[in-house]
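Bench log. Compound arrived from synthesis this morning; before running ITC I wanted a structural hypothesis for how zinc ion sits in the protein. Inputs:
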Amino acid sequence: MDVGLTSAEKRLVEYSQAAVVKYNKIRHANGGIDTLYAFILSDKEKIYDGASYEPNIVHASVCGERCAIANMVLQESYKAKIKSIVVADPVPDVQEYGTPPCGTCRHLIWSHGMPETTVILMQYIQGKEGWTFPKLQKYTIKDFYPLPYEPEKGLWDNWRPQ
Ligand SMILES: [Zn+2]
């Protein structure tokens, strides 16, 4: 499957596929089901894992992308930058598009990212023999968030009505 991955992105994708299998096996062994995962490659070439957190209070939910970002910040501080993020979501069969990040996560990936930060959508399917990864799509965060929310500090500092 050639979607023009760099060697660093290939490493992240291979890591992500192994981690999806590992985590899903743990979840299934404990009565759980597949979920959305996110895996971040930081500019320090380190990988951070995240998964959706869906507790019994809906408004306390945390997206997989944000879970991975929080893990990156925990290990590397707020100065850390996202080089690439994989969003791996289970699908019943191959879809035209993989699941993209929600609006809030698009903003956070952008604010913790770089102009060239890539977002790789990875569909995965549970079969009798395990999990397969039939489709990858690669974008940049700018594709998903072309006009970022960026309040300008000091904009009104010397303002007087004219
Ligand atoms: Zn989100």
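What the model suggests: The chain is about 30% helix and 30% strand. The chain has a mean pLDDT of 96.
ITC booked for Thursday regardless.
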